[in-house]
Amino acid sequence: MDLVKSSILKASAATLVVLLIGLLLGLQVDDMRGNYIQDQLRESDLEMQNFLVTQNYLDDSTSNYCGLVETRIPELSRQNTEIGSNLQSFSGKSLSNGQEYKFLVRKYYVNQLRLYNLLSDYNERCNKNTTLIFYFFDDSVQSQRQGAVLTEYYREVDNSSYIFSFNLEKEDSSVLNMLREGYNVTDGPAVVLNGDRTYRRYVPLKELKTLTKNESLGLNSSQDLNLSEGEVN
Amino acid sequence: MIFLLAWVLVASSMFMSAFFYSVYTSQKSSSEELDDPDKWPSVSVLVPAYNEESVVADSLENLLSIDYPELEVVFINDASTDSTLEKAQRFEDRDNLSIVDLEENRGKAGALNKGLEQVESDFTAVQDADSVIDGNTLRSTVSRLVAEEDTGGVIARIRPLKKNSFVRRLQSVEYMVTNFHRKLMSKADILDVTPGAFSVYQTQDLKDLDGFDVGNLTEDQDMAWRLRRKGMSIRMTYNAVSNTELPASFRELKGQRVRWARGYIRNISKHSDIVFSSEYGWFSRFQIPVQFAVALISVAGLGLIGYGFAESLYNFLITVSSVGLSFSIPEYSITKALLSFQWKIYTPLFFGIGITAALVKQAYEESGRSLEHKTGLLFYLFAFFFLKAGFWSTAIFKELSRSSKAWT
């Protein structure tokens, strides 16, 4: 066999083997991505159950409840943020094509809503002004800008606000559908402050700070939790 | 789509690296040592020059001092407007030098053809006026041409004459790798160029082909392809060396490389009837299409990287326009970084880089050089690809706009 022919065959075989290794490695890592997020969700579940059990054990007294929430919330929130960030970062990989990704996202949204309910309860029972923000986004530029604004806002306000983000574009879950219908959100970006003020547009950082400040002072805020609107665009 | 393109790019790079590595491992036992011919054939060296006053004296002095039995140097002044002719005329007292002075500038191919008209020697060598050959170069290339009847051209290794700028040191590394690749291509009998820096041909072959193609941007490559079409091989003699003056600045380098790329595109078009043809062996079936595909892939790769860069810049600008400049150090996690990798892309990429690195190491060893010009080497390994792809993109754009102008 001549040199070129044999070299083409050897190079083709080597390339195929390497591509196959890459493919297998990719599939393996895809599994690991799923497991990694599953583990985080399990840990978050455990943390939440731990919290609920402890709450029941300690009785219903307000001081016990508030103290307990204050110690547990940062960890629960950190876990949730990390899961969200991992789901987002792995979404471009092949995991995003599988049913598993959708399942993990649904699970994550349930966790988000559970945390939201917990924090709402905490605000009410402990008389706190923690701002809770629902953020709905899609692939639009305005959503991208809103994402940057919320990231910066969260970085600045630290623990006085919590953001719960939902991707309108890719994911489908009963939690998401319920919220979409509840707040009448069709496109991103949309921001809901404390469950009662809906902004179906891009909200700049300065305005967001003013709005959340007003929220914490109780200005312009309706107590009608269902379908109220801050602004119609 | 982007993923698929990236995957094709890395798979192709991996294939090319593996191909050359396979040729390399198959050629270890070969030797270039050839016996001297019983009688050395007569040789004429054509030296075309246009405005080469700074280098022509060294080049002629070098050629005229070569120890070879029957050597004639034909210097062709292609209507230079500087003192090139006067400098060459200082050597007129040498018996084996003849000077052809053209009144009108004919371009390199035209000048070579004028010189060829008066050649009666068995072999004809072509050497650029800004090149200087090592003492054994002529004999080692000629002996190979004598020994191998089916060989139409023998080329030498190219080394930089000067390394006094970063761009030249970068090319020094590039030529070292290119020489090694050419050696492998010579062994595989798919070599497709006879560089102007120094190449030797059988005179009759050149005359049969009516000399060089006037107006061709890369007449040396065209000649190699036409010899191939005659069923002849092009070989490299690795221990033959031509030291040549290389572009000293990026601007000069760009001018040269865009011209080469445009010449390649035009030669592909000119010889399109043999692309993929089995009549001329692996040269037409593999070398021409693959070389062109590699160039196109490099352009696509540049586009892909440009797209990624533009996307990052776009995201950055969106962030800045929304919240101003804001920096925060992201949390670093090795696990997360490894999980975020696209292993289907990175695996062939890493393998390809590994094999390429092994070939570059071998190129250093074969050229007898230590690990010199480290900055040039790093630039060559990690950035030269972009530069070359940029030159190719420019060439393709220029050729396309030239075609559209021609059609309208």
The major pleated sheet of chain B works out as: 8 strands, mixed
Low-confidence stretches of chain B: none
In whole angstroms, the N-to-C terminal distance of chain A is 74 Å
| H/E element sequence of chain B | HEHEHEHEEHEHEHHEHHHHHH
Q: How much helical structure, as a percent, in the residues of chain B?
A: 55-70%
Write the layout of secondary structure elements.
The complex is a heterodimer of chains A (233) and B (408).
Chain A: H1 3-58, H2 62-90, H3 99-126, E1 131-137, H4 141-157, E2 161-167, H5 174-183, E3 190-193, E4 197-199, H6 205-217
Parallel strand pairs in A: 1-2
Antiparallel strand pairs in A: 1-3, 3-4
Chain B: H1 2-26, E1 43-49, H2 56-64, E2 71-78, H3 84-89, E3 97-102, H4 107-117, E4 123-126, E5 131-133, H5 137-147, E6 151-160, H6 166-188, E7 199-202, H7 203-208, H8 219-229, E8 233-244, H9 250-270, H10 281-323, H11 334-340, H12 343-367, H13 374-382, H14 384-407
Parallel strand pairs in B: 1-2, 1-4, 2-3, 6-8
Antiparallel strand pairs in B: 4-7, 5-8, 6-7
Helix pairs in contact in B: 1-10, 1-12, 6-12, 6-13, 9-14, 10-14
